[in-house]
C-alpha cells in the first residue's frame, strides 16, 4: 500500500463503502443506521489486515481509516435526515451537504500532502506550483569550492564536465543522530587521509540518455587510489523515487566509471562512498542534467 497513490486508494475505498451502503440499504432493505454499521464493519474488516500487512506510516493509516469510516457513516446520516425532513418539505438539508463538501476538500488536501511527503514532487509539479530556485547549480558549485578552498586543492576539469565534488559528506542521508560521534571521528580520519575526487561526466548529460560518468581518485600525494570499491548515489531532492545508485568499476588505475542515464533534468545531489580495505571515504557533490535555465 505504501507504493500506491493515496488519492487512488482513498477513492477506491470510499466508492466501495458507498456501494456497500447502497447494497444494504436499497437492495437488502436494512435501516439507514444499520446499513451504515454493517458497511463500516465490512470495510474495516477488509482494510485493517491489508494496512497491517502493507504498513506505510501512521498518517497514511489514519487518513484511510477516517475517510472509510466517514464514507460508511455519512450516508446513514443523510438518509436519516432526509426521512426526518420528508414530512416538512421533502428537501435535502444543507447541513449534510456542507459536511460532504468539507470532507471531500479534506480528502484532496490531505492525500496531496501525504503523497508529496512520501514520494516527493514531480518536475512538472515543481515547475507549475513552486517558485524557481534561488540558486542555480553553477552558483552552488562556486559556493562549494569557496567553502572548501582552504582544504581542497584546485580540481582539474574539462569544459564538458558539469559535476562537482567539493568535499567530505557533512550530512549523511542514512546516519542517525546517535551515531554523530562516530561520524565526527570518521570525518577527521578522512580529512587526514586526503583523498581527492575529480572529473565526473565525460559529456554533457541529458535526461534519459546514457552518458559516461567517471571519477579520478588520488591520494594526498597525487598518486592514483587503486583497488577501490566505489558506490555513487544520484539523489533527487524533490522526488526520492527517482534516486539512482550504481557501482563504478575501476577502468584504469584510479579511474572508476559507469555509463548511466538519469530520468529527469535539473539539479541532482551526489553522495559517493569509496572503500579500499578498511578505508572508507565519503564525498558529496552536485550535478546538473540537461540545459541550465
TrEMBL record:
<feature type="transmembrane region" description="Helical">
    <location>
        <begin position="37"/>
        <end position="55"/>
    </location>
</feature>
<dbReference type="Pfam" id="PF05751">
    <property type="entry name" value="FixH"/>
</dbReference>
<feature type="region of interest" description="Disordered">
    <location>
        <begin position="140"/>
        <end position="161"/>
    </location>
</feature>
<feature type="transmembrane region" description="Helical">
    <location>
        <begin position="92"/>
        <end position="109"/>
    </location>
</feature>
<feature type="transmembrane region" description="Helical">
    <location>
        <begin position="6"/>
        <end position="25"/>
    </location>
</feature>
<dbReference type="InterPro" id="IPR008620">
    <property type="entry name" value="FixH"/>
</dbReference>
<keyword id="KW-0812">Transmembrane</keyword>
<protein>
    <recommendedName>
        <fullName>Nitrogen fixation protein FixH</fullName>
    </recommendedName>
</protein>
<feature type="transmembrane region" description="Helical">
    <location>
        <begin position="61"/>
        <end position="80"/>
    </location>
</feature>
<feature type="compositionally biased region" description="Polar residues">
    <location>
        <begin position="147"/>
        <end position="158"/>
    </location>
</feature>
<keyword id="KW-0472">Membrane</keyword>
<keyword id="KW-1133">Transmembrane helix</keyword>
Amino acid at each position: 500500500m505504501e507504493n500506491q497513490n493515496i488519492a487512488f486508494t482513498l477513492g477506491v475505498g470510499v466508492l466501495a463503502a458507498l456501494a456497500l451502503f447502497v447494497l444494504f440499504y436499497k437492495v437488502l432493505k436494512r435501516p439507514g443506521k444499520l446499513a451504515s454499521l454493517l458497511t463500516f464493519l465490512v470495510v474495516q474488516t477488509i482494510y485493517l489486515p491489508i494496512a497491517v500487512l502493507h504498513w506505510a506510516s501512521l498518517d497514511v493509516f489514519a487518513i484511510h481509516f477516517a475517510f472509510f469510516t466517514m464514507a460508511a457513516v455519512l450516508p446513514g446520516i443523510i438518509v436519516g435526515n432526509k426521512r426526518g425532513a420528508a414530512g416538512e418539505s421533502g428537501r435535502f438539508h444543507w447541513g449534510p451537504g456542507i459536511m460532504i463538501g468539507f470532507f471531500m476538500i479534506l480528502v484532496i488536501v490531505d492525500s496531496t500532502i501525504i503523497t508529496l511527503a512520501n514520494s516527493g514532487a514531480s518536475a512538472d509539479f515543481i515547475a507549475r506550483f513552486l517558485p524557481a530556485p534561488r540558486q542555480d547549480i553553477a552558483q552552488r558549485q562556486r559556493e562549494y569550492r569557496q567553502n572548501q578552498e582552504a582544504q581542497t586543492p584546485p580540481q582539474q576539469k574539462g569544459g564538458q564536465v558539469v559535476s562537482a565534488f567539493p568535499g567530505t559528506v557533512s550530512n549523511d542521508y542514512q546516519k542517525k543522530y546517535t551515531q554523530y560521534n562516530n561520524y565526527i571521528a570518521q570525518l577527521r580520519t578522512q580529512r587526514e587521509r586526503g583523498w581527492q575526487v575529480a572529473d565526473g561526466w565525460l559529456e554533457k548529460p541529458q535526461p534519459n540518455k546514457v552518458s559516461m560518468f567517471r571519477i579520478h581518485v588520488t591520494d594526498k600525494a597525487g598518486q592514483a587510489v587503486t583497488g577501490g570499491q566505489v558506490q555513487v548515489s544520484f539523489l533527487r531532492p524533490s522526488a526520492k523515487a527517482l534516486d539512482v545508485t550504481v557501482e563504478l568499476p575501476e577502468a584504469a588505475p584510479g579511474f572508476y566509471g559507469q555509463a548511466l542515464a538519469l530520468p529527469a533534468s535539473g539539479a541532482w545531489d551526489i553522495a559517493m562512498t569509496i572503500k579500499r580495505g578498511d578505508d572508507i571515504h565519503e564525498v558529496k557533490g552536485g550535478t546538473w542534467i540537461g540545459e541550465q535555465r
